Amino acid sequence: MIQGIGVDIIEIDRIRDVIDRHGDNFLQKIFTETEINYCRSRKISHQHFAARFAAKEAFGKALATGWRGEFNWKDIEVSNNELGQPSITLYGKLAEKIGKDRVLISMSHSDNSVVAFVVIEK
């Protein structure tokens, strides 16, 4: 049974501009160390940061609480397996709230934008 769905689209240049202006302060507030290390290892790092940002926003929409309550940016970690398939790992209160529910994610990008779609399934 589907508990929630969320989608987010973001312009890659918007995230690049925020990173250029706020640097590590922004990165440390939004992303886990694992995410930061992964994105920085990629050729177009701001594209990967944008994808993870969109995924976290889409998750917040699927949760239906937005950024209130249990939502903490760093309690949501987006990673890719060896084939590139994305997944979400939850920590803290979010992990407790979601429990054994499945979180499915899909992400895609163009030269300018990234889109992320999240489904929370009971």
Structure keywords:
4 helices, 3-stranded antiparallel β-sheet, 5 strands, two-stranded antiparallel ribbon, alpha+beta, 122 residues, Ribosomal Protein L22, Chain A, single chain
CATH C-level category:
Alpha Beta
Kindly estimate the percentage of residues that lie in beta strands according to DSSP. 25-35%
Show unreliable segments.
Answer: none
Number of domains: 1
Give the count of helical stretches.
Answer: 4
Mean pLDDT: 93
Overall number of strands: 5
Q: Helix proportion of residues, in percent?
A: 40-55%
The N- to C-terminal Cα distance equals 5 Å
CATH topology name, in short, is: Ribosomal Protein L22, Chain A
Derived structural class: alpha+beta
User: Strands of the biggest beta sheet: in what spatial order?
Assistant: 1-5-4
Radius of gyration: 14 Å
By CATH, the superfamily comes out as: 4'-phosphopantetheinyl transferase domain
CATH architecture level-2 label: Alpha-Beta Complex
Q: Shape, please?
A: globular
Describe this structure in words.
The chain has 122 residues and is α+β, with helices and mostly antiparallel strands. It has a single domain, classed as 4'-phosphopantetheinyl transferase domain (Ribosomal Protein L22, Chain A). 44% of the residues lie in helices and 30% in strands. It is built from four helices and five strands, in the order E-H-H-H-E-E-H-E-E. It has helices at residues 12-30, 33-41, 45-63, 92-98, and strands at 2-11, 76-80, 86-90, 102-109, 113-121. The strands form two sheets. A three-stranded antiparallel beta sheet has the order 1-5-4. It has a two-stranded antiparallel ribbon with strand order 2-3. Strand 4 (102-109) and strand 5 (113-121) form a beta hairpin. Helix 2 (33-41) runs antiparallel to helix 3 (45-63). The protein is globular and about 40 Å long. The mean pLDDT is 93.
